[in-house]
Design goal:
GO molecular function: flavin adenine dinucleotide binding; oxidoreductase activity, acting on CH-OH group of donors
Cofactor: FAD
CATH superfamily: FAD/NAD(P)-binding domain
Pfam family, one: GMC_oxred_C
Structural class: alpha/beta
CATH architecture: 3-Layer(bba) Sandwich
Protein name: Glucose-methanol-choline oxidoreductase N-terminal domain-containing protein
Distance between the termini: 22 Å
Number of helices: 15
CATH class: Alpha Beta
Strand content: 15-25%
Helix content: 25-40%
Radius of gyration: 24 Å
Strand order of the largest sheet: 8-9-20-21-22-19-25
Organism: Oryza barthii
């Protein structure tokens, strides 16, 4: 019996859905398939073509999202920063700290200081945070996936999609091997080997650095898209989302975006008339709530104070900001350890993660004496109380650091950071310039449980230092007392002048006064308050948010794996939903 036309259409759509999900893992992946990266000024000033999707932010989530959507639809990806390719400060581990410390207006990293006084950074480059982070790759826990309500089968398809393209196993560095052994001897067990999974105990995770120290980023994932459907503009700073609020409409509908190019020229890009077309904001935990506010979505009184026309009052935009606090212990060694970032992690039952970094780069461009991930060059001024920190102090110290004795840099760090966290703050506009940082407050350790966890982490490090493995590495044959290494940690990063050496009398005070960041901030666009379960912005149509701003806690030990997976996940989810609606199923 012949199929009706409707049944035939449904059958064809379902075949398309199945072939989409099955074929993507088998396609040959090559960076030769990257789309052309164009300057924003190349975009015509006059309106010409329209798009099915406009993705704001070519970062950790935005790149895999845009690549996936481009397989079926026309996509415009707008990135405020430049290209990571050809930038040695992005591409090579040995220059990690230089990339983060670069204060130039077009650098890959944009520094900001939270109102708490902690120096931080946000990415300003295609590939986002994957271009400036420590490279560690570890998935979210299964509990996290269940809590956010994602489809576990699709999650388990999306993680390998990322991993097959840019993730590798590290050739474990000596300092990382020492941490592995020390964790196990200190009781952080079992050893789970090399794994991407989030499991209690000690493990070695993946890395986006290859064996030569070259970094592979989320930007590489654009090569998995269709270059004929994907247009990428660099140095495109989106000022606002444009809405059509005609009378009779139930909700304001997004129609496009307004952005400026590298020369300050103003442009507009528009969606096509299809009701499924969307603006997808993937500008990160700072940029996404900031853009919603600049577009008129947020607390009405705050919007009025900046003379921003109100599109929708939502008191939750910018609220619930959080950053995982980190504290570090400097361990002097007999000889300078080889450079390493994060490769090994101890995942404790108490909700504390233990990691490590060591050494410094030796490239011609590199600063030859710094403390790796804990370097003052990147603003990790843990010796100065938070309220006294400034970018100027970081820069001043970087300029005079070469005068310090080289022995000061013989050692590595063991880091503790807490899961969650439970302490939260908020984000608010300072002005209406999207290129400037908003005011961000994280309220580190305002929740007592966070402080309790920090103390537990410091005590765990103390147990590690007492193990045979670290006694063998110690510059002192008798090892180091905890009081001594705490004092050294208070002094090491900035200079040899004691600042708060009595911090060692109270581990709680040590935690408060030496708190720094590992750049895992999140929140500001929470599910159920700013976006729905599908990440569509509540109260308007045609806008989604897909990035870490939707998280109420940071996933896993390090979020980049989950955020890249998230971009792929929502891209596939959107495609399947759209094809399903077209088929009437």
């Amino acid at each position: 019996m012949a199929l009706s036309k409707r049944m035939l259409f449904i059958f064809q759509a379902m075949v398309c859905l199945c072939s989409f999900s099955l074929s993507q893992g088998n396609q040959q992946f090559s960076l030769r398939n990257l789309p052309t990266l164009q300057k924003a000024s190349s975009f015509p000033a006059m309106r010409h073509e329209t798009y099915d999707y406009i993705v704001v932010g070519g970062g950790t989530a935005g790149c895999p999202l845009a690549a996936t959507l481009s397989l079926k639809y026309k996509v415009l990806l707008l990135e405020r920063g430049g290209s990571p390719y050809g930038n040695r400060n992005v591409s090579y581990m040995e220059n990690f700290h230089i990339g983060l410390s670069n204060m130039a207006p077009d650098s890959a990293s944009q520094a900001f200081i939270s109102t708490d006084g902690v120096i931080n950074a946000r990415a300003r480059v295609l590939g986002g945070g994957t271009c400036i982070n420590a490279g560690f790759y570890s998935r979210a826990s299964s509990n996290f996936i269940q809590e956010v309500g994602w489809d576990e089968d699709l999650v388990n398809e999306s993680f390998p999609w990322v991993e097959d393209k840019i993730v590798q196993w590290p050739k474990i560095a000596p300092w990382q091997a020492a941490l592995r052994d020390g964790l196990l001897q200190a009781g952080v067990s079992p050893f789970n080997g090399y794994t991407y999974d989030h499991v209690s105990g000690t493990k070695v995770g993946g890395t986006i650095f290859d064996e030569t120290g070259y970094r592979h980023t989320a930007a590489d994932l654009l090569a998995a898209g269709d270059p004929n459907n994907l247009r990428v503009l660099l140095h495109a700073s989106v000022n606002r989302i444009v809405f059509n609020s005609q009378r009779g409409q139930l909700k304001p509908r997004a129609t496009g975006v307004q952005f400026t190019d590298e020369n300050g020229g103003l442009h507009q890009a528009f969606l096509n008339s299809n009701c499924d077309s969307e603006i997808i904001v993937s500008a990160g935990a700072i940029g996404s709530p900031q853009l919603l506010l600049l577009s008129g979505i947020g607390p009405k009184n705050d919007l009025r104070s900046h003379k921003i026309p109100i599109v929708l009052h939502n008191k939750y935009v910018g609220k619930g900001m959080a950053d995982n606090p980190m504290n570090s212990i400097f361990i002097p060694t007999k000889s300078p350890p080889r450079q390493s970032l994060i490769e090994t992690v101890g995942i404790t039952e108490a909700g504390v993660f233990i990691e490590a970094s060591s050494g410094f780069g030796q490239s011609p461009e590199s600063i030859h004496c710094h403390h790796g991930i804990m370097s003052a060059e990147i603003g990790q001024l843990s010796t100065i109380p938070p309220k006294e920190r400034s970018l100027e102090k970081a820069q001043k110290y970087a300029n005079t650091k070469l005068n310090l004795p080289k022995e000061i840099f013989h050692g590595g760090f063991i880091l503790e950071k807490i899961d969650g966290p439970l302490s939260t703050g908020h984000l608010a506009l300072i002005d209406t310039d999207v290129k400037k940082n908003p005011a961000v407050t994280f309220n580190y350790f305002s929740h007592p449980q966070d402080l309790t966890r920090c103390v537990y982490g410091i005590k765990t490090i103390e147990r590690i230092l007492k193990t045979n493995r670290f006694s063998e590495l110690s510059a002192n044959t008798d090892g180091h007392s905890m009081e001594r290494v705490l004092n050294m940690s208070v002094q090491a990063n900035v200079n040899l002048i004691p600042k708060h050496t009595n911090d060692t009398e109270s581990l709680e005070q040590f935690c408060r006064d030496t708190v720094i960041t590992i750049w895992h901030y999140h929140g500001g666009c929470h599910v159920g308050k700013v976006v729905d379960q599908q990440h569509r912005v509540l109260g308007v149509s045609g806008v989604r948010v897909v990035d870490g701003s939707t998280f109420s806690r940071s996933p896993g030990t390090n979020p980049q794996a989950t955020v890249m997976m998230m971009g792929r996940y929502f891209g596939v989810m959107i495609l399947r939903g759209r094809l399903g609606r077209a088929a009437g199923v």
